[in-house]
Protein: Alpha-galactosidase
Organism: Collybia nuda
Amino acid sequence: MITLGFAVLFSSVLLVSQAPPAASLNNGVGRLPFMGYNTWNAYHCEINETIVLNTAHLMKSLGLLDVGYDHVNIDDCYSERTRSASGDIIANKERFASGMNKLTDQIHALGLKAGIYSDSGWFTCQLFPGSFQNEARDAKLFQDWGFDLLKYDNCAVPFDSVIKEGMVGKYSRMANAIADLAKTSGKPPLLFSLCQWGREQPWLWGRRFGQSWRTTDDIGPDWGALSSIINQNSFISWASDFYGHNDMDILFRGNGNLTFDEAKSHFTAWALMKSPLLIIFYLKLSVASKETLEILMNKEIIAINQDPVVGTSITPFRWGVNPDWSNNFTHPAQFWSGESQNGTVFMLLNVLNEPADMFFSLTESPWIRAGREYSVRDLWAHTNNGTAIRNITVHQVPPHGVVALLLKDAGDEPAGTEPPCARPEWCMDKNGTRIDQ
Ligand SMILES: *[C@@H]1O[C@H](CO)[C@@H](O)[C@H](O)[C@H]1NC(C)=O
Ligand SMILES: *[C@@H]1O[C@H](CO)[C@@H](O)[C@H](O)[C@H]1NC(C)=O
Ligand SMILES: *[C@@H]1O[C@H](CO)[C@@H](O)[C@H](O)[C@H]1NC(C)=O
Ligand SMILES: *[C@@H]1O[C@H](CO)[C@@H](O)[C@H](O)[C@H]1NC(C)=O
Ligand SMILES: *[C@@H]1O[C@H](CO)[C@@H](O)[C@H](O)[C@H]1NC(C)=O
Ligand SMILES: *[C@@H]1O[C@H](CO)[C@@H](O)[C@H](O)[C@H]1NC(C)=O
Ligand SMILES: *[C@@H]1O[C@H](CO)[C@@H](O)[C@H](O)[C@H]1NC(C)=O
């Protein structure tokens, strides 16, 4: 009786403390982070239907679709400069001459989904028509054109005297239009991908409206940009869960100078922090390098990003070189863990410019049980690396390199394992003797 009463009390306490800060928008689309391709970083405004379609074909032939990259998203510059006499956005007559329906039909026929772009203000960032005051009309047009996803930008903000809304109101206009359209059309809502940049703290409110929100300004090409984004996201990784995701921006932007190890760290952090995974590649360079593809197609890492059972992100359990909770753009948190369908996932980041041995006690992670041993799977080597008891040391992690491990409970640790408590604070024998003093 007493035990039961205690259990009930305990679980209700747990329920309260685990309630998310605001419910995510569970509208049937975007439960998991979306994966795919976006035209912007490779082509800027130089896009056309041939490029988009060839990209779709390539995503299929390279095997990217098979591992989950199933969106081809068109960014800014697809339209004419002005709306039609009746007020609709018009697809660019030369560059999208066959019309958007033909294009999305062809994309869908390949087994891919199609994304389109607009802006919450008067114009897009490249000064094509924005959707402010045309939200319902444009949402309907995008759906009629056959698109599945809408990326929604933040340029050309109307004067305060016109808009009389903050960020929340400005983005809710299109969110409401999408929801209303889904109701009247009976079709699934457009997956709504907010691109309001980082300064507006969208992780506090974006989850009411969309399936993803950008957490930072546009990503840069080198390690400095990556470590800065990882640092910023380390403080808000709690905000990602099913139907709502911190979007850390595109993977492998531009012709940066990432090393192979930096690129692995990039992909691992984005995937395990449940960011949408959006790639770019250049048709003219006959695509991504073999190394890049090898990274982008790591199925064990993708499986964590697309975990159907656990929606939450990894979070830091120790910062490493700096004190915990340090805000440091060059040296973000180094020791991370999170739950997954198949066990506890760990990410170790070497933020130093030289190789480092990295050590952690298993129970530093909240998701590990004391007194148990764990089988270790290396998600980059794709090997089973024996059994861990109490702690793990990884030797010679390369500069800016990453280690990703999946630990599975493998039963009680061997009898006689010492010390009696891996975490010595307040470790006590039943007879009242403290062993940490
Ligand atoms: C699309 O762009 C490519 C590369 O610039 C060009 O070769 C092709 O002719 C263009 N196609 C159309 C339909 O504009
Ligand atoms: C390459 O990386 C170094 C070190 O991070 C950086 O200082 C430099 O600006 C980068 N160069 C380019 C072209 O991105
Ligand atoms: C869990 O393991 C199963 C079987 O190997 C695999 O299919 C699935 O993708 C794994 N899930 C995650 C989240 O790693
Ligand atoms: C970031 O951390 C490194 C390593 O501790 C330190 O050298 C550097 O001064 C820190 N930068 C800032 C801005 O605090
Ligand atoms: C796991 O084992 C493989 C194969 O021996 C090795 O390449 C890899 O570095 C090991 N991983 C760790 C984290 O030690
Ligand atoms: C790591 O765990 C082992 C038990 O497997 C223990 O003997 C050792 O003292 C631990 N190392 C550290 C540094 O805590
Ligand atoms: C109490 O526990 C400590 C630590 O386990 C042990 O060394 C000691 O012998 C115990 N004392 C008695 C009276 O059992």
About this structure: The chain has two domains: 28-305, 315-412.
